[in-house]
Amino acid sequence: MTSSAASGLAEPPVAGPGPDERLARQSLLRRLLGRPELGALLGAVALFAFFSIVADAFLEAGSFSTVLYAASTYGIMAVGVSLLMIGGEFDLSAGVMVTSAALIAALTAYQFTLNVWAGVVISLALTLALGMVNGLLYVRTKLPSFIITLATFFMLAGLNLGVTKALTGNVASDSVRDMDGFDSARWIFASDIDVLDALKIKITVLWWLLFVAIATWILLRTRVGNWIFAVGGSAASARAVGVPVARVKIGLFMGVAFCAWFSGMHLVFAFATVQSGEGVGNEFLYIICAVIGGCLLTGGYGSAIGAAIGAFIFGMTNKGIVYAEWNPDWFRFFLGAMLLIATVVNLIVRRRVERSS
Amino acid sequence: MTDTADTTGAAPEPGQPEPAMPLIRLTGVGKNYGNIIALRDVSLEASAGEVTCVLGDNGAGKSTLIKIVAGLHRHDTGTFEVQGEKVAFGSPREALDRGIATVYQDLAIVPLMPVWRNFFLGSEKRKGFGLMDIEFMRKTAHGEMAAMGIDLRDVDQPIGTLSGGERQCVAIARAVYFGAKALVLDEPTAALGVKQAGVVLRYIVQARERGLAVIFITHNPHHAYPVGDRFLILNRGQSIGYHAKAEITRDELTALMAGGRELEELAHELDTAGSSATAKQLTKEAKHLGLTDD
Fold first, then answer.
1. Which residues of B touch A356 (CB under 8 A)?
2. Average pLDDT rounded to a whole number, residues B175-185
3. Which chain regions cross the lipid bilayer (chain A) (predicted)?
4. B236 assigned to some structural domain
């Protein structure tokens, strides 16, 4: 220190960057802590390490692709659900809407003996309409989306069973395996892809990653993304500065419907028949994925990547318990515990962010 | 300026903006919510380079008045003119398109969103395909705040982490940047400490000097008097005084605000209750301000 003072001019440029660099590193750490995904990422790493140790089969390539598949089927729905949650709303009908979408495609194609692709397109139109109904009901009545979608949840669950039984005399739709277009549709919605010699993954994993990428791009880079954060963070403020709040919210409900349609198509072309009673309860799993991934239940904060990590955690826990040869009855307990931890972490984040100086 | 506005307001030269024409003029405006009369027969003018203060106690109708100007509510009676043209706004967007920007009490900000996202919310700068020009927006938000004398460490910090005065300034800077010709400020100093309020008042003067018409809503005459050019005092939904600065002193304004008669009534009340010393003091004050009946 004394020598540097004596040497004078040569020293300061060297000494200068020292503290500056440290400041930059500090703010980088703070920025990381402010990211919604961080908690989920740490949790995912910890869980991965945990199951790698306790379950020998967990690290095998086959197991990993099973985990990814489980993660993708919930992750695709979590994309739409997380965007909706960032926009400040819930959709409790999301679980049965997947079954509805699948039934619409399978039943219309079978009953009218159409090419299955016609069923796929009709299902897309009708499922998007279901999402729009949810959105319009919410916008027009101003009731909490929790109540609105609880009502549509029960209505859809009843319709799924009632219509299927009326048309087929059975609780499941007739098989569409032998119908025109099944193979090409199966290739799009439910095929296996060879990644490496040993590793086969389901195509849903690729779709999942694509949807997450698109959702992240929308959220962070586009005007609509700005609006989604705003309507969730403070709808009144958003309206006051000219954001079309009603259109954004309806669009978000339709986004969930789109994901439900895609998941439904996967069901149809993976299994050829659709069980009309399926899907009940899954809406909570999607919400759990989004919340574990750092989305605030009250809206305005979160990320699609976080929800993807949440879905990955879900997939790891779901399959990891099996590979560890534990009683799978415990799965739900772990899920609930993780939800609790994630929510508490979120709460702390929000308090820290909202604290005004 | 006010005199000429009254006489020549009818037919301005087309193309040549008439300097004397007020930017905003309300004439006999009223608003009912069901059977509740929130506002009755209120008139007000706001011209470029002037600050028009709207004063009144809670429930006087200040909020209703600015909601009409801001486009959140339609007025029921009277006329609302912007640059001589009659209007009735259906949404805040329409008011914004006419150059009327409103800074609300709650500031219309989203606390969890970064400063720059808030700054451009609803008017995002785009590059095509719905893509936002993020680099431009971050730079501009930082630059505009610096121009108001606030050096943000990080435009990515959530706006909820700024101080109350700083948040006010973001909201005002935002309105000025987006080409507001008229700025409506809803109680910008209400929740602030003395120092922070001073900062905000300075920006009000700055906005006036940049040629904006400012409508400044407040219940504090001590904040209104130093910056205001005209004062509208509301009570129970009606105008009880509309004065240019030359016609009124700070004390008169304060007395009008408090309601001279009410002050006297309070004195009587206290008198009968026994605390005659305070009552005498109040009576004297009311008389001194020349606003009692005797």
1. 160-164
2. 85
3. 38-55, 67-85, 92-110, 116-139, 146-163, 201-220, 227-246, 252-272, 284-314, 330-349
4. yes
CATH number belonging to domain A37-354? 1.10.3470
Place of tokens 């039943």: A107
User: Using the beta-carbon criterion (under 8 Å), do B110 and A238 form an inter-chain contact?
Assistant: yes
User: Would residue B107 count as lying in a domain?
Assistant: no
Whether residue B122 and residue A357 make contact (CB cut-off 8 A), yes or no, is no
* Cα–Cα dist A80/A91, whole Å: 10
For chain A, residues with pLDDT lower than 50 are 1-26, 356-357
* Residues 74-133 in A contacting B (C-alpha not used; CB under 8 Å): none
CA separation for the pair B200, B163 (Å, rounded):
12
Q: Name which of A179, A184, A162 is nearest A171 in CA terms.
A: A162
A221–B contact, CB cutoff 8 A: yes
The domain ranges of chain A are 37-354
Residue B221, CA distances (Å) to A144, B2, B71 in order: 42, 22, 26
Q: Does B210 reside within a domain?
A: yes
Which amino acid is located at A325 in the chain? E
| Res A31: pLDDT | 59
Q: How far apart are CA A99 and CA A163, in angstroms?
A: 12
Q: Which residues of A touch B156 (CB under 8 A)?
A: 31
Specify whether B14 is located in the same domain as B77: yes
State whether B171 and B185 are in the same domain: no
Whether residues B243 and B204 share a domain: the answer is yes
Query: Which residues in chain B are contacts of A355 at CB distance < 8 A?
Result: 160-161
Residue in A221, A241, A300 nearest the CB of B108: A241
B126 and B266, same domain (yes or no): no
Rounded to 10 deg, the angle between the A304-323 and A38-54 helix axes is: 20
Higher pLDDT, B7 or A27: A27
Q: Is residue B194 part of a domain?
A: yes
**Total count of domains within chain B:** 3
Q: What is the DSSP letter of B103?
A: E
B13-67: per-residue pLDDT in tens?
Answer: 444 444 567 888 989 888 888 888 888 888 988 888 899 999 888 778 888 888 8
Do B187 and B93 belong to one domain?
Answer: yes
Residues 6+ apart with CB under 8 A from A296: A85, A86, A232, A302, A346, A350, B112
Asked whether residue B152 falls in the same domain as residue B6, the answer is no
Q: What CATH number is attached to the domain comprising B21?
A: 3.40.50.300
Interface A–B counts its CB contacts (< 8 A) at 94
pLDDT in tens, A237-254: 898 888 899 999 999 999
Task: Choose one of B178, B209, B231: the last residue of a domain.
Answer: B178
For residue B137, the enclosing domain spans 112-178
Q: Which of A85, A219, A237 to mutate to test the interface with B (most CBs of B within 10 A)?
A: A237
Q: B228 by DSSP, 3-state: which?
A: coil
